[in-house]
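Could you help me review a protein record that somebody else here produced? Here is the record exactly as it was handed to me:
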Amino acid sequence: MTLIASRLIRKSGRAGAATLDYITLDSDSRHMRRARLTTDGGRTVVVDLNDASFMQDGDALATEDGLIVIRAAAEPLLEIKAENALALARVAWHLGNRHAATEVTADAIFIQPDHVLEHMVEGLGAMVRHVSRPFQPEAGAYSGGAHGHGH
């Protein structure tokens, strides 16, 4: 049986709704408008949203039978740290200037692997480590919650 999902429900708005299944997607796959997907439990879901949307970990697709909850898959990333907040902010500015999809945390910045950007941030004095973890890039400031440039 194929499920149809035509509505995205943000994590904050799904309290009390029944979870039918889960679907684990990397960050690139979580940006969509229309797609045919397979849930972690083997169900087929046809996604047909009104607008292209970026789904964060914990968001859900509403079907007639219940919610399909989105899980962010672990993926290869670059973890960038610096000696202090000012140095890390400087790195963030340079990454933003290049429109790189970026996740900002309290003590690190995460980006998808890119040898040119890796070399650039090392040249700015930052430390780079290759890691595997879910990627939750920042939404664009003017996008109304949609995913920023590059996706």
